[in-house]
Specification:
12 strands, Heat Shock Protein 90, 46% helix, alpha+beta, single chain, 11 helices, Beta-Lactamase
């Protein structure tokens, strides 16, 4: 590859617009990195495949290509819905341009991307507001709770009757339970210890823990199906290992409970270039998807699931997701959720390059 061709390739890969080149039979000849992310396929996997095999409604792209070829010039349609793999439907603006040698250039810009940025900003603001509220309430609860427990202990020392001491033990036990709840809401108190992490080692640790829990609870080991779909090219990231393990573990436990004893969980990793998280532009971001085939989250609850005490299960505490969001936020990342019956996805976004990495000296 000549220097000029290398520069052109680099420029194409830095674009956030998906770019594909197809032949007269609508077979893919080339695509940039944004197109790989859109189609969830690498260039090696997509090369030579037809559009019919890459999207679930190829008629839209086929009609645009035909119209452009007939007119002999570029043709654009805006805000069209395109169904692609993995239960994804995106809103796109699409421009098709005929090239020489019976080739066609297809440019796809996701309109949903702007909505996603707005949703991310809302999630970050929500997490910060909830965190401040919870910390304030937790500190207000801890002081009288300590006094209540101490008074119960003093009262117990003055009682001679074992029957009466049972009541003070109830008070002490409930005070301890509330103390643990408050500590969970406050999150880790120890400062983070940054180190280089292999994402897949963390996911394998979580997978082993969840499978062990299933066996301990009496579930048949074969009934818990965890599918791994890893991108081995992901580089290491800098962060607190225990925080990342706990956050992902909360998500996978949640997925297991949602999917049920005969459900399926998929752990998937991918890379995303040029992404903004909390108004910070990152050149490379890791994406971790935790997918389950459970009944899904009701639409009216999807905006509230990261609030404390909000849960879709009667036996749930409503703390797992807020704690996970808080831990990922400490790593400079974000958790998002999309859900429909039979397909719920919790997506963890983690920056691979950030100021935190440079400041830590790693």
């Amino acid at each position: 590859m000549s220097p000029s061709e290398a520069i052109k390739s680099q420029i194409l890969d830095e674009l956030t617009t998906a770019v594909l080149v197809v032949d007269e039979h609508l077979r893919v000849l080339a695509l940039n990195h944004a197109a790989e992310l859109l189609l969830r396929l690498s260039i090696r996997q997509a090369h030579g495949q037809s559009l019919q095999s890459l999207v679930r409604c190829p008629e839209l792209l086929e009609s645009l290509v035909v119209t452009a070829l007939q007119s002999g010039g570029s043709y654009t349609q805006r805000e069209r819905r395109l169904a692609i793999a993995e239960h994804r439907v995106v809103t796109i603006d699409c421009t098709v341009t005929p090239l020489s040698n019976q080739r066609t250039l297809i440019e796809i810009a996701e309109v949903d991307r702007h909505a996603r940025i707005t949703r991310e900003q809302h999630l970050i603001a929500q997490n910060q507001a909830v965190g401040e509220l919870v910390r304030g309430l937790a500190h207000e609860i801890k002081n009288p709770l300590g006094g209540l427990r101490g008074a119960a202990q003093l009262l117990e020392a003055e009682l001679d009757s074992p029957e009466q001491r049972e009541y003070t033990q109830v008070i002490i036990g409930e005070a301890d339970r509330l103390q643990q709840l408050v500590d969970s809401l406050l999150g880790p108190r120890a400062p983070a210890r940054a180190e280089w992490l292999n994402i897949h080692e963390v996911l394998e640790r979580v997978r082993a823990l969840v499978e062990a829990e299933a066996v301990e609870e009496g579930s048949h080991e074969a009934s818990l199906r965890i599918v791994r779909d890893y991108d081995p090219s992901l580089p290491q990231l800098c962060g607190e290992r225990s925080h990342l393990i706990q956050a992902v573990l909360n998500l996978v436990r949640n997925a297991r409970q949602a999917a049920g004893p005969r459900g399926e969980i998929t752990l998937r990793t991918r890379a995303q270039r040029q992404m903004t998280i909390a108004d910070i532009q990152h050149r490379l971001v890791a994406r971790i998807d935790v997918i389950d085939n459970g009944p899904g989250i009701p639409a009216h609850q999807q905006e509230q699931i990261f609030y404390p005490m909000v849960t879709t299960r009667a036996e749930g505490s409503g703390l797992g997701l807020p704690i996970a969001q808080n831990l990922i936020g400490r790593l400079g990342g974000l958790i998002e959720c999309t859900s429909e019956p039979g397909h719920t996805v919790f997506t963890v976004w983690l920056p691979m390059e950030s100021e935190r990495n440079h400041e830590s000296g790693l």
